[in-house]
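To: structure desk
From: M.T.
Subject: fold request, one chain
Message: Could you run this one when you get a chance? Sequence is below, nothing fancy, just the single chain.
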Amino acid sequence: MSRYVCDENMCTGCMACKDICSQGAIAVIDSVKHYNAVIDENKCIECGKCGKVCQNASEPVVSKPVIWHQGWSKNQDTHESSTSGGLAAEIEKEFIRNGGAVCSCTFEDGRFKFRVVRSVEEVGIFRGSKYVKSNPTGVYREIKTLLERGEKVLFLGLPCQVAAVKKYCDAPNLYAVDIICHGTPSPSVLEHFLHSSGIDINDVSTISFRVKDYSRISDNAIRFAVPGIRDYYSYCFGKALDYTENCYICRYARLERVSDLTLGDAWGSELPVEVRKKGVSVALCQTPKGEKLLNNENLELMPIDLEKVLKANPQLSHPSKKPENWNSIMNDISNGIKLKKIIRKNYPKLYYKNILKTILNKVGLYPRKKTRMNPIFLTIEKERI
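Reply: Done. Structure tokens follow.
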């Protein structure tokens, strides 16, 4: 067989190819603009296995949602501690109670990676949004081994990662949940932002990119912006300024999904504001497996208008739009220029407006507003000594 060649502009960084390569011929290359796999021609034996698991080698297998709900966990602690309504955490716990294993992304040792857990107590390590690319290397082989043993596995990840795990080891006992995704930056962008603040990501124990109540910051955490103002990492993420190139041509940003169940924020919900402030999730169900996951007595579910969900969630219709100055921004990041200076150069009105807001906030003249457009805080909590 001939050597498979993957287009780096399309590569999602799912790393299924790296897992399946028996020769160790594939490496993960993070160039800020791309986070992709590269084949070492000297090690490659041209077996073609990487092409068989590559999402770009064929069209994704997708299905339209057949059921859609909004809701939250009936468990108050789970609901309050979750980024949104806590559906993911409750589904994970119930799956484990029924004898299955759960695999999802967590932050450990300065890296965003995937782990398989088997106890309800461990589910908490998956909590929270991750506004950065993760690396699933190694987990595909582990999942395949579990499935071959006849065990049930629930995988939760981004749509591209779900597509990868299904190509690598799809089986009747594999359940897949994808998270609605806007796009993601390379880990180098986050590391660059932290480094510019004098923080080594390897010294960090936990990272929170988002909280429902923006004043709920732990007492030993570092907050990069005053309440009501976005930090510059969050601003770049929210405005889709620094995603890897493949995200702007994503094949999974559509209503048709690759998973059994899709979860996200219930933007477009018409529930009272007081209810939405507590966190409400949306669930789009594509398959009988997805329905089975939602058949959970610990979930409070109710109908939601799908048209309103689509209108409020453009990533369910098309990928994020690539900014015209994307190359310039990414080159500046690659050259070590601080995000603060990049925003000042490219968006001076926003930069100086935020400076003014920060000053007014500190003197009590600019109270934060509790609306959807509030900033997302990036918080970091170092290990207690």
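Reply (cont.): DSSP finds 14 helices and 13 strands in the chain. Let me know if you need anything else for the meeting.
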